[in-house]
Design brief:
Length: about 210
C-alpha cells in the first residue's frame, strides 16, 4: 500500500514538472497535459516494456492515468500564481525522481528479479520520464548535466537493495531511500554538488 501511494505522489510530482516545462514553450492545454503524462508515466512504461510484463502498469490500473491527467490540469492553472516556477520545477523533479526510483526498485525486487536488474530498472524509471520531458520541451536533459542526477538515483536504488536484504519488508525502507535521493538532489541544486573534476572529460586545447 505504501509503494502504491508513493507511486501516485511521484506521478503527480513529475506531471507538475512537465506542465512547467511545457509552459516555457507556450504550448496549449492539450499539449501541456500530454507532456505532463509523458513525464509522469514514461519511465514506468519503459520499465514494464523492458521486463515484458503482461500489461503496462497504468493500463492495468487506470488510477495512475487519471492522477497524471488531473495533476497536469491542476498544475496548468495552479502554476500561474507561483512566482519562482523554476524552483518548484527542481523540487518537484527531485521528489519525483526519488519516489519513482525507489518504488520501481522495490517493485521489481518483489517480482523476483535480481538486485542488479531491480537497480537498473529503478534508475531507468527515475530518469527516463524526465529525460523525455526535457527533450520534448527543448530543455537540456538534467540527467546529462554535470550536477548529481543519475548518481543519487543509483545510490537510492542501492540502498533499497541493501535494506531489503538486511531488514526485509520493513515499512520505512522506501522512505529512507527516497530521502537519500531527495537530499542529494537538494545539495546538488543549492550547494553545487558536482562530480570531481578528475572524473570529467575536459576539452583539449587547440
Amino acid at each position: 500500500m505504501l509503494l502504491y501511494i508513493l507511486g501516485m505522489i511521484g506521478i503527480a510530482a513529475f506531471a507538475i514538472t512537465g506542465v512547467i516545462s511545457a509552459g516555457r514553450r507556450n504550448m496549449d492545454l492539450f499539449s501541456i497535459v500530454l507532456l505532463g503524462m509523458v513525464a509522469s508515466l514514461g519511465g514506468g512504461t519503459i520499465r514494464d516494456v523492458v521486463l515484458r510484463l503482461d500489461a503496462v502498469y497504468w493500463v492495468n490500473d487506470t488510477s495512475y492515468l487519471w492522477v497524471a491527467i488531473l495533476s497536469s490540469v491542476f498544475a496548468f492553472f495552479g502554476v500561474r500564481v507561483i512566482e519562482n516556477r523554476q524552483q518548484v520545477f527542481h523540487y518537484a523533479d527531485s521528489f519525483g525522481l526519488a519516489l519513482f526510483t525507489v518504488v520501481a526498485t522495490e517493485s521489481v525486487l518483489n517480482m523476483g528479479f535480481s538486485p542488479i536488474i531491480a537497480m537498473t530498472m529503478g534508475v531507468t524509471t527515475g530518469v527516463a520520464g524526465g529525460m523525455m520531458r526535457d527533450l520534448l520541451s527543448h530543455r537540456p536533459p538534467l540527467v546529462l548535466g554535470r550536477e548529481f542526477y543519475a548518481t543519487p538515483a543509483f545510490l537510492g536504488a542501492l540502498l533499497v537493495v541493501l535494506l531489503e536484504r538486511n531488514i526485509p519488508f520493513h515499512e520505512y525502507n522506501a522512505i529512507y531511500s527516497a530521502l537519500l535521493i531527495f537530499i542529494l538532489r537538494l545539495f546538488a541544486i543549492h550547494k553545487g554538488l558536482y562530480y570531481p573534476s578528475w572524473l570529467l572529460y575536459k576539452k583539449r586545447e587547440s
